[in-house]
């Protein structure tokens, strides 16, 4: 038995604030609040203020469930304890939405792909990203090595083997097959 949608409280001034802070419409904000965050929380509290969702619960959403980067997405958007307040949850939904500008999506993709956390996309990160995007045995080790080399050749403008955010942004424009097709499919939930 589902709770009545009307039992959840999202005051108008908060909705208006979220409209300023996110790329989401009024309807999307209300819907993400009532039908996702509050439903998942399954709490007696009508207001989201004290509610936190675990990364485990958030990654069970259909929007994230099949995404090979869902753990990284949660890591980037959740607080340091791996939990989501409604603000953090909504920020994630906003960046994942079609309305978020590409530049913003790329900024977050950079953080999601920076597995080793050194603020660069490097060879190690590219290997990890590729291994998550392909099916097992789809590419041989040699093929992955040459794909990584190819991406760096195209994108690493100062040849230091590390992609800065600017070089990474450039790479997405230059290598649409890898970054756009796969990324659209997996990261942006299409
Ligand atoms: Ca890195
Ligand atoms: Ca570089």
UniProtKB/TrEMBL annotation:
Q: Could you give a GO molecular-function term held by this entry? A: magnesium ion binding
Domain EF-hand, residue spans: 101-136, 143-178
Which UniProt keywords are given for this protein, alphabetically ordered?
A: Calcium, Magnesium, Metal-binding, Repeat
Database matches in SMART domains: EFh
Parts of the chain that traverse the membrane: none
PROSITE patterns given in the database record: EF_HAND_1, EF_HAND_2
Q: Which domain of life is it from?
A: Eukaryota
Q: What is this protein called?
A: Calcium and integrin binding family member 4
Please tell me the species this chain comes from. Answer: Latimeria chalumnae (Coelacanth)
Lineage at the top is: Eukaryota, Metazoa, Chordata, Craniata, Vertebrata
